[in-house]
Amino acid sequence: AAAVRINxxxxxxxxxxxxxxxxxxAAADFVHVDVMDNHFVPNLTFGPQMVERIQDTSPVPLxxxxxxxxxxxxxxxxxxxxxxxxxxxxxxxxxxVSLARRLRAVGARAGVAVKPATxxxxxxxxxxxxxxxxxxxxEPGFGGQSFMPDTMPKLRAxxxxxxxxxxxxxxxxxxxxxxxTIAQAAEAGADTFVAGxxxxxxxHPEQAxxxxxxxxxR
Length: 218
Ligand code: DX5
Ligand code: ZN
Known about the structure:
Layout lengths: L4 E4 L9 H6 L7 E6 L11 H10 L4 E6 L3 H11 L3 E5 L6 H10 L3 E6 L6 H4 L7 E5 L15 H14 L4 E5 L7 H6 L4 E4 L1 H4 L4 H13 L1
Parallel strand pairs: 1-8, 2-3, 3-4, 4-5, 5-6, 6-7, 7-8
Bound molecules: D-xylitol-5-phosphate and zinc ion.
């Protein structure tokens, strides 16, 4: 089976016990770090100073998801901190391809994310400018929402296009991913799975990661 990545979202972690929470997910592939600015989404989390401390502390590489306006101003700074991947939103970027190139130039994987209602056709011709494409499976802003199955046709279209072009781009899903939904996203073509409440809400996060990985492979 192809590689599958499980990226727990620390949005569902206890923020004042962050070092302990990070230690609980050492079996993960990346830690997903949700940056929100209360403009692009109606919620606020943390910024570069906190992410730098997470980078210093985390046993696994960082997968930063920027739900912010003006990513041109902020995204390269997260790459400079050492985040393994930095994903900005297509809806917020003025020139997505040139921003992706700037992120790669700093050594990060470049990601672009789309909200549930945003079409993905404009990405087809530039797939290889990105290392990952994040198809949001909820409206961004909050953890614990229900997976939206009507986002799956977009994922299928991206997967078909990536196959057709022989692209190595990773296809990520985020929102409502758990043991009962991960298989349908995998079947539609996702290979990289963000899970917040399904991991940090579990009694044993390490076991939850193993269970998710197992279901994504079926
Ligand atoms: C939502 C965030 C997600 C969130 C997922 O806007 O981008 O990463 O943490 O949380 P769950 O897995 O609980 O839906
Ligand atoms: Zn996210």
